[in-house]
Amino acid sequence: MSQARVEVGGLTIAEIGAGLLVLVCAERGDSETQADRLLAKILKLRIFSDDAGKMNRSVQDIAGGMLVVSQFTLAADTSGGNRPSFTNAAAPGDGRRLYDYFVAQARAAHPVVQTGEFAADMKVHLVNDGPVTIPLTVR
């Protein structure tokens, strides 16, 4: 990703250049253990091009930024019809707690971490290279 930003109420609240836009969803039963495993995977994931053009570098290798945005809609279940169900999403209090934990751990492990605003009506802007979009799940 070459750049991303988040706006709330028409104001930019977070912005990064090259790096990762990390959309995070806590689901029922998730814990800090899953958050730690997810962060470890994200930081080491080799998805940025090296000098030969191969995906061989991590966000840490390129000293890229991370923009972490909560997005409970990733828990959508559409198997029952045309209206998504979000019953798999963590309760708001649990979701906020895990999001805040994930952000704190990310900031402790990586120098450039920006965030969206939990439960806000955000406008998320992304210039995606490639595009490359990779869903990650840890259990």
The profile of the biggest β sheet is: 3 strands, antiparallel
Helical content band: 10-25%
Shape: globular
**Total domain modules:** 1
Spatially, the strands of the biggest sheet line up as 2-1-8
SSE class: alpha/beta
The CATH architecture comes to 3-Layer(bba) Sandwich
* Beta strands, count: 8
Number of helices: 2
Strand content: 25-35%
Round the Cα radius of gyration to an integer and report it.
15 Å
Poorly predicted ranges: none
- CATH classification class: Alpha Beta
N-to-C CA distance: 26 Å
CATH superfamily: D-tyrosyl-tRNA(Tyr) deacylase
- SSE succession: EEEHEEEHEE
- How confident is the prediction overall: mean pLDDT? 96
Description:
With about 140 residues, the chain is α/β, with parallel strands linked by helices. The protein has two helices and eight strands, in the order βββαβββαββ. The chain has helices spanning about 30-45, 90-110; strands at about 5-10, 10-15, 20-25, 50, 55, 65-70, 115, 120-125. β4 and β5 form a beta hairpin. The radius of gyration is 15 Å and the shape is globular. The two termini are about 25 Å apart.
